[in-house]
Amino acid sequence: MCRKESCNVPAPDERPRADVVIYDGRCRLCCTAVRWLHRRDRRDRLTFLPLQDPRATERYPDLSLEELEKHVYVVDRHGRRHKGAGAVRYLSRRLPALWIFCPLLHLPGSMPVWRWLYSQISRRRHMFDRSE
Predict the structure, then answer these.
(1) What pLDDT band is residue 26 in, cutting at 50, 70 and 90?
(2) Which own/partner pairs from 107-113 qualify as long-range (CB within 8 Å, at least 24 positions apart)?
(3) How many domains does one find in the chain?
(4) Are 49 and 22 in contact (CB under 8 A)?
(5) pTM: predicted TM-score of the whole model, two decimal places
Protein backbone atom coordinates (compact mmCIF):
# COMPACT_ATOMS: atom_id res chain seq x y z
CA MET A 1 0.00 0.00 0.00
CA CYS A 2 1.15 3.49 -0.75
CA ARG A 3 1.55 4.88 2.74
CA LYS A 4 1.55 8.56 3.59
CA GLU A 5 5.11 8.23 4.91
CA SER A 6 6.41 6.87 1.61
CA CYS A 7 4.25 9.05 -0.65
CA ASN A 8 4.75 12.18 1.41
CA VAL A 9 1.49 13.68 0.13
CA PRO A 10 -0.86 15.91 2.13
CA ALA A 11 -4.03 14.46 3.64
CA PRO A 12 -7.37 16.32 3.60
CA ASP A 13 -7.02 17.33 7.27
CA GLU A 14 -3.82 19.23 6.41
CA ARG A 15 -5.49 21.42 3.76
CA PRO A 16 -9.21 21.63 4.51
CA ARG A 17 -9.94 24.02 1.60
CA ALA A 18 -8.17 21.91 -1.04
CA ASP A 19 -9.64 19.43 -3.50
CA VAL A 20 -9.43 15.77 -2.41
CA VAL A 21 -8.11 13.12 -4.79
CA ILE A 22 -9.38 9.67 -3.76
CA TYR A 23 -7.22 6.92 -5.26
CA ASP A 24 -6.38 3.22 -4.86
CA GLY A 25 -3.57 3.13 -2.33
CA ARG A 26 -2.76 -0.48 -3.22
CA CYS A 27 -2.17 0.31 -6.88
CA ARG A 28 1.42 1.09 -7.84
CA LEU A 29 0.35 3.06 -10.92
CA CYS A 30 -2.12 5.10 -8.85
CA CYS A 31 0.46 5.89 -6.18
CA THR A 32 2.95 6.96 -8.85
CA ALA A 33 0.30 9.24 -10.39
CA VAL A 34 -0.51 10.73 -6.96
CA ARG A 35 3.13 11.54 -6.28
CA TRP A 36 3.44 13.03 -9.78
CA LEU A 37 0.39 15.24 -9.21
CA HIS A 38 1.66 16.32 -5.79
CA ARG A 39 5.01 17.42 -7.23
CA ARG A 40 3.19 19.59 -9.76
CA ASP A 41 0.77 21.11 -7.24
CA ARG A 42 2.83 24.21 -6.46
CA ARG A 43 -0.20 26.14 -5.15
CA ASP A 44 -1.32 23.50 -2.62
CA ARG A 45 -4.66 22.92 -4.32
CA LEU A 46 -4.81 19.15 -3.79
CA THR A 47 -4.89 16.63 -0.97
CA PHE A 48 -4.89 12.87 -1.31
CA LEU A 49 -6.84 10.08 0.34
CA PRO A 50 -6.46 6.36 -0.39
CA LEU A 51 -9.81 4.63 -0.81
CA GLN A 52 -8.65 2.08 1.79
CA ASP A 53 -8.51 4.80 4.44
CA PRO A 54 -11.71 4.64 6.56
CA ARG A 55 -11.99 8.44 6.24
CA ALA A 56 -12.83 8.04 2.53
CA THR A 57 -16.18 6.36 3.20
CA GLU A 58 -16.78 8.39 6.36
CA ARG A 59 -16.32 11.72 4.57
CA TYR A 60 -18.05 10.66 1.35
CA PRO A 61 -20.75 8.08 2.20
CA ASP A 62 -22.38 8.66 -1.20
CA LEU A 63 -19.35 7.12 -2.94
CA SER A 64 -19.55 3.34 -2.77
CA LEU A 65 -16.43 1.24 -2.34
CA GLU A 66 -17.24 -0.41 -5.67
CA GLU A 67 -17.24 2.99 -7.44
CA LEU A 68 -14.06 4.08 -5.67
CA GLU A 69 -12.31 0.90 -6.82
CA LYS A 70 -13.30 1.56 -10.44
CA HIS A 71 -12.46 5.26 -10.72
CA VAL A 72 -10.24 7.90 -9.24
CA TYR A 73 -12.42 10.62 -7.73
CA VAL A 74 -11.73 14.27 -7.14
CA VAL A 75 -14.02 16.00 -4.68
CA ASP A 76 -13.56 19.68 -5.34
CA ARG A 77 -13.64 22.36 -2.65
CA HIS A 78 -17.33 22.97 -3.42
CA GLY A 79 -18.22 19.30 -2.86
CA ARG A 80 -18.71 18.39 -6.53
CA ARG A 81 -17.56 14.91 -7.53
CA HIS A 82 -15.45 14.29 -10.64
CA LYS A 83 -14.68 10.68 -11.55
CA GLY A 84 -12.41 8.81 -13.91
CA ALA A 85 -11.72 10.70 -17.13
CA GLY A 86 -13.79 13.61 -15.80
CA ALA A 87 -11.41 13.85 -12.82
CA VAL A 88 -8.41 13.91 -15.15
CA ARG A 89 -10.08 16.62 -17.23
CA TYR A 90 -10.88 18.63 -14.07
CA LEU A 91 -7.28 18.36 -12.84
CA SER A 92 -6.01 19.60 -16.21
CA ARG A 93 -7.82 22.88 -15.52
CA ARG A 94 -6.92 23.02 -11.83
CA LEU A 95 -3.13 22.64 -11.97
CA PRO A 96 -1.19 25.14 -14.08
CA ALA A 97 1.44 22.49 -14.84
CA LEU A 98 -1.26 20.46 -16.62
CA TRP A 99 -2.77 23.29 -18.66
CA ILE A 100 -0.82 22.11 -21.70
CA PHE A 101 -3.19 19.09 -21.85
CA CYS A 102 -6.39 21.18 -21.70
CA PRO A 103 -6.89 21.70 -25.45
CA LEU A 104 -6.65 17.98 -26.12
CA LEU A 105 -8.80 16.90 -23.16
CA HIS A 106 -11.47 19.50 -23.93
CA LEU A 107 -11.93 18.88 -27.65
CA PRO A 108 -15.67 18.98 -28.34
CA GLY A 109 -17.08 15.46 -28.50
CA SER A 110 -13.90 13.81 -27.21
CA MET A 111 -15.12 12.79 -23.74
CA PRO A 112 -16.39 9.34 -24.84
CA VAL A 113 -12.88 8.59 -26.13
CA TRP A 114 -11.27 9.73 -22.85
CA ARG A 115 -13.76 7.65 -20.82
CA TRP A 116 -12.97 4.59 -22.92
CA LEU A 117 -9.21 5.15 -22.62
CA TYR A 118 -9.50 5.72 -18.87
CA SER A 119 -11.52 2.50 -18.43
CA GLN A 120 -8.91 0.52 -20.37
CA ILE A 121 -6.10 1.79 -18.14
CA SER A 122 -8.15 1.43 -14.96
CA ARG A 123 -9.02 -2.20 -15.69
CA ARG A 124 -5.37 -3.07 -16.29
CA ARG A 125 -3.74 -0.91 -13.61
CA HIS A 126 -2.82 -3.81 -11.33
CA MET A 127 -0.64 -5.30 -14.06
CA PHE A 128 1.97 -2.76 -12.93
CA ASP A 129 1.90 -3.87 -9.29
CA ARG A 130 4.81 -5.76 -7.82
CA SER A 131 4.11 -8.96 -6.01
CA GLU A 132 4.97 -8.37 -2.38
Answers:
(1) confident
(2) 111/85, 111/86
(3) 1
(4) yes
(5) 0.85
